[in-house]
Amino acid sequence: FRSPLLWDVFAVSTYATVSALFWYMGMIPDLATLRDRAKSKIAQFAYGLGALGWTGSARQWSRYEKAYMLLAALATPLVLSVHTIVSFDFAVSQVPGWHTTIFPPYFVAGAVFSGFAMVVTLMVPARKWFGLKDLVTIRHLENMNKIIIATGSMVGFAYATEFFIAWYGGNGYEQFAFINRAFGPYAWAYWTMISCNVIAPQFFWFKKVRTTPWMMVVICIFVNIGMWFERFVITVTSLSRDFLPSSWGYFQPTAIDILMFLGSFGLFFTLFLLFCRYLPMVAMSEVKAIMPPPASEDLPEHALPKPPRPSELQPVTAEGASS
Amino acid sequence: MISLGRKPRSPAPPESGVLAEYRSAAELLQAARTLRDHGYRRLEAFSPFPIHGMDDALQIRPSILPWLVLIAGVVGGVSALAFQWWTNTIDYPYLVSGKPMFSLPANIPVMFEVTILLAAFAAFFGMLLINGLPRLHNPLLQNERFARVSNDGFFLLVAPEKDHSPDQTAEEVVRQTAPVSAEPLAPPEDEVASIPRGFVLTGIVLASLAVLPPLMITKARSSTSDKPRLHNFFDMDFQPKFKSQTASAMFADGRSMRPRPVGAIPRGARSMDPRVKYGIESVEAIAQELERNAGGAESPLIAPPAAAPELNEPAMDNALVNDAGTNTADSLTPEFVARVPVSVTDRLMRQGQLHFNIHCAVCHGKAGYGNGLASQRALQLEQGTWVPPTNLHSAYLLEQPDGQIFNSITNGVRKMPAYGHQISVEDRWAIVAYVRALQRSQSATIGDVPEELRQSLREFN
């Protein structure tokens, strides 16, 4: 119980379990809707199984709302804890470039950053193809982009702080690790990371960029690439120059590494598309709750809630759906 | 959890009665209030989304769910902490670098995660339990109109009161509230809903497949096989490397651990004064001694007698091993240097204290009485193999020349291992100087204390 690897097991599996529960719980009333609207007997039974016999009675709603609120409150600190504990895997070790106290906040900011970017990347095409433009408005996307620029700047600040501490700390190994990171054999990866993560989101200072769907998708894809390189830079550059010169080397991915990478994309998009096809993408009951009765005046668009994040596979599921 | 069922809850949700449909949430709320005011308390409203104010209209008491979540969270946190404490200190105590067996900060991450996990389970499963879910066949769901409830229907179910009779029947009151429709709902029958055939088949197939892996494991564990075991990661199970203390066909002497080649000089060790390097006055005497004994020596290391002792370090090192039981070492009586051959400064003494506390104190104790933590633990285990470390204040040690103590650190003595390979020459001399200071401190009199400090010492007493 005194190893970060074990903490990691607890943190990640708890996070996955609670996120899955939260995601499923949000769908129960909507699955009941699908059950009641299903045409075929099989679909009706399958959705009925998922809806667990939901009737929408006032008592059920009362407890459901309470439980959903509690779950949201529990999931929020979990977002902080999971990224903090994952960063302990690195920060608790002795390897230069990993052994820093800035890692926990830096990983949390990075996770929010990449999570929002991923959601924007997926949501912009989804709202276009599925006709959700009135539910997910430009205003929502613009606000997300503002969070991206804020967290992106935090991440950039963390990169700078790491260098400052390496210099200010006066530790020769640490200094070497960082100089090697920026100017060594992996400089290409480092500067890719910097330009994608720190420079690209700065374009969101322009309102035109923040509100034009294709531009934000391009920037968010850059952010996704940059965050992938961040993990690559942290993991590979430190390990390629550790304390034993005999273990110095240059990382070369094996065929298995490359196939795993492609496979993870495949798995994600398969599940994502299955989700879009068979399960409710938008929390219908929440939208209905604030929808005006047919006869009365329309409410302004921004009164609509944001839909939950489209998939449980993304790191920000919990805090996204609770907002 | 069981006590939940027994807890009196007022009023119980009805299962049958009059089912009325309304156009909007507002009308439903109004109707619920009207019925309540007429004395009907067994009401239930159904809507596609939560309606605010409905809890009050139906007299639904606040759920005990938050308390359940709190209890589950506390149970999770406390049991995670207790479990970690029990495994670390009672069930499998394992001392790592003298750290405490139980340290709270390291246990916080797991504690936190288990707290949240159990609280989240309580929120989710508690909600299902209190709501009586999952309930896969419900008479309400058989009603054709009622299917709209999860879509855009607003329904109210009124059950006739049992213990008292209001002035108007339920039907009459409902009719006053102007519903879209109203119809009686029969009490629930125990009717099993039919499950589509495909689901039954899939379920049976999956259930049978799920039994297979446990069966295969059971068979493998209870029978023997003449096939070699599978190696999923062959290059992890068989790594191309030599392990210590194993044989190697590659080298002439058959050892996989390689001795230092003759003539190799470690980095930084070149042209050091032999008095500093070995703690002896003259290397020539040792070299001659080695040469004389070379014929009878069994160790291949000492076999080639060297003319220049500087070039034959392994032999030199070996020759100085104390009490090692080899022919050569017994016959050698080197003349050790009497005093530390480097300049003893305040810095050196502090360095000595640091390295003594790192390397020596675990066995010899911080004051040198041979009562370090490792020794205490070993004696406590009573395994019978432990030789207690030497008390550094023993009379014979007080008389030994500094060079001999240096040699003991370098090459080990009796069961004490050699530290020459892991403590630098300078640090070894620093330790010797510190040991001397320790010895002095334990046999000192007031006369040894400088005049100006005696008064403060007396006050301290």
Concise synopsis of the structure shown:
Chain A is mainly α and 323 residues long.
Which labels suit this protein?
heterodimer, A: 323 residues, mainly alpha, 12 helices, 72% helix, elongated, disordered C terminus, B: 461 residues, four-stranded antiparallel β-sheet, disordered N terminus
Structure write-up:
By secondary structure, chain A is mainly alpha-helical. Helices cover 72% and strands 0% of the residues of chain A. Chain A contains twelve helices and no strands. Chain A has helices spanning 4-37, 41-51, 58-91, 103-129, 138-168, 172-183, 187-199, 207-211, 213-240, 255-278, 284-289, 317-322. In chain A, helix 1 runs antiparallel to helix 3, helix 4 (103-129) packs antiparallel against helix 5 (138-168) and helix 5 crosses helix 6. The longest helix of chain A is centred in the first third of the chain and has 34 residues, at 4-37. The relative contact order of chain A is 0.13. Residues 294-323 of chain A have low confidence and may be disordered. By secondary structure, chain B is mainly α. Helix content of chain B is 47%, strand content 4%. Chain B contains 19 helices and four strands. Chain B has helices spanning 3-6, 25-37, 54-57, 65-91, 104-130, 139-142, 170-176, 197-222, 234-237, 274-278, 283-293, 313-319, 327-331, 346-364, 373-381, 395-399, 402-411, 425-442, 451-460; strands at 17-22, 43-46, 154-158, 181-185. A four-stranded antiparallel β-sheet of chain B has the order 2-3-1-4, covered by helices on one side. In chain B, helix 4 runs antiparallel to helix 5 (104-130) and helix 14 (346-364) packs parallel to helix 15. The longest helix of chain B has 27 residues, at 65-91. The relative contact order of chain B is 0.08. Mean pLDDT of chain B is 75; it is low at 1-11, 295-312 and 322-331. Classes of the chains: A mainly alpha (323), B mainly alpha (461). At the A-B interface, helix 1, helix 2, helix 3 and helix 11 of A face strand 2, helix 4 and helix 5 of B.
